[in-house]
Amino acid sequence: MTELERLIKAKIPCEETGIEIRHTVCDICTPGPQCGIDAYIKDGKVIKIEGTDGFPSNNGVLCTKGAANRQYIYREDRLKTPMKRVGERGEGKFEPISWEEAMEICARELNKVKAAYGPEAVTFLCGYSKWFRPWLHRLAYSFGSPNYITESSTCHTAEVMSYNSLFGAFSMPDLRNTKMIMSWGSNGVINSYPMGRAVLGMKANGGKLVVIDPRRTHLAAKYADLYLQPKIGSDAAIAHAMAKVMIEEGLYDKDFVEKYCYGFDKYADYVKQFTLQKAEEISSVPAADIRKALDMFLETDPSAILPGNGLTHRTNGYNVHRSILSLMAISGRFDRPGTLLPCRDTLCDSDGGFESLEHEFYMSRFPENAKPRVGSERFPLWTRLLHDKQGQGMDLVRHMEEAKPYPIKAMVMFGVNDRMYPESPRFLKALKDMDFVMATDIFHTDVIDHADIVFPASTSFERGEVKCYVGQFIEYTRPVIAPVHDNKDDVEIITMLANALDLDDDLLRAGYDKSVQYILSPSGITDWEAVKDAPLPVRSPNATRYVPGTMLKNGLPTPTGKIELSCSVLEELGRPDLDPLPIHKSSDDDADPKEFPFILMSGARIPNAVHSRTHNVPWLRSLRPEPSADINPADAARLGIKQGDTIRIVSQISSITVKANISSISNVGDVNMFHGYKEANVNSLMPIDHLDPYTGFPGYKQLRCRIEKVED
Ligand code: SF4
Question: Which of 211, 324, 384, 404 ranks highest by number of CB atoms within 10 Å?
């Protein structure tokens, strides 16, 4: 082997090898903390990737999924060209078509629906990825439709509602400055690596960690100083028992509550019934452990609770989440260092240290006299507590099927996967009845097979984009490779569609650079090309660190101006089925516990997957080659199930067949299963109306089922 061949084999970047390092960001998981990547490029191809040293969110490290980016971008099932359907919807028969012709057809068909049924008959639906959301949002409104909907109807928005309800703003624990974390239903090490790093960093610096989680996660088993494993759905009872102790023993922050909290008397009266013993009966967690966790929380100052997003994936999830946040409120752990701090929205849910014009960017186009958005009548709290005016997509299928209160006839979809929906086959069936369906994605999915016109989207390696990071950083990437196929980035597709529709919207039609620079103009940055050229993210001149205490000083942006232990919006709505207090409630599931004795949890993250997006990445699939469900060893022994046996999970409406993974990660009586598998879609087991009535969120983590061993 020559010296040059040796250098090439070792992928050494230099002039002789022709290998160059170019910088981009990973776009596989959620948009907030996405990690910096150094892409090694040779002859226009990515031959290796590494995490970027010194990058604010990952400092050189990539998680399992991020490390597989090369296989992700070169996947065989990527969409390669615009296509037009030639078979029946669902058949998957297409022929290639030019971008121009495809855009012309979309504009013609969407305008036809608009003329016949009104603009609201077109729904703009967004799944993954999320970087282009403000642009799709504006496209919907400029078209005249109020129906902009995202997959956040099942993901993160119920958590936002809970924060907004109590504090008027989304907030996050100040993980860098706290000395103790109660991680409640949260598993940052797997689902958000940057957050996980912060939790482990706190622990490494001598901090204390309590984990409360029905799943015995890696975080619980390896790092927790104290671990509580409650039955699914019992968390509010535990939180209320803690509150009762705090109130009755005078351990709460009386001055803080008097000054800043609303509804304390009603709340205190309600939690009175939750003794530690009662919480033990409901949750199976020993009363002494609940008390010990509370003492650790109160004896360390500052301390914070990190409530997981998954807590809202239950039929009483909004109340569970609120009950936990209430502990932060009555202990005075809000808006001071090391506790819960309000966040500012700069771009796509990321806090870059200043308020941008993102909200203004789309809300300024909200159509006058718009009909009610999808889900807004069925879930009024959703509409009242969210500031960015999107529809609740969990009412979409019903709306499509019943055409009430008005018909929906066309869909414009970006990155949508039917398997995010409970009773997923109904979503595909509803698509078949549409007059027109346009779908954009990176990969060929079942939803693509139901579209009339299909557009291939780019990965983060093939586009440039702006990201904002905590610490006031802004990153502006350039593409590191040319499009792998005849694909374009999502915003370019939105821009082309806005132009084809001839919308009266010059800013949207001007494309990404112009509009993102408008959105971020409060940053004070004037030379955007210099930001693109910078080797690492730059600080925005106008960005500031949030000064803890500011929100308390200025008044909270809730209707009462205080932290609401009783939700004033719910008091005003006066719906008997929606209690203003964060009440405890066992499952609303009407399945017979004798026939369906197990509780199924889906959606909790595994290291190698984000929804369905990485199931077809060979490196990642090899870590869990077959869809499998985690069953506690005691349950497995009782049912005669061994590791790797084939089992059937049966719900009231359907069943799937998977492999058994015998693991103490699942509590006795629980089954845990990751979602998104085409061959075993766990969400198909869930009835479409198994929803939290406050938020409309599906009870993904609380569904009755039974397990049957399948004999070979
Ligand atoms: S945590 Fe993993 S998947 Fe998410 S952005 Fe970072 S490397 Fe990518």
Answer: 211
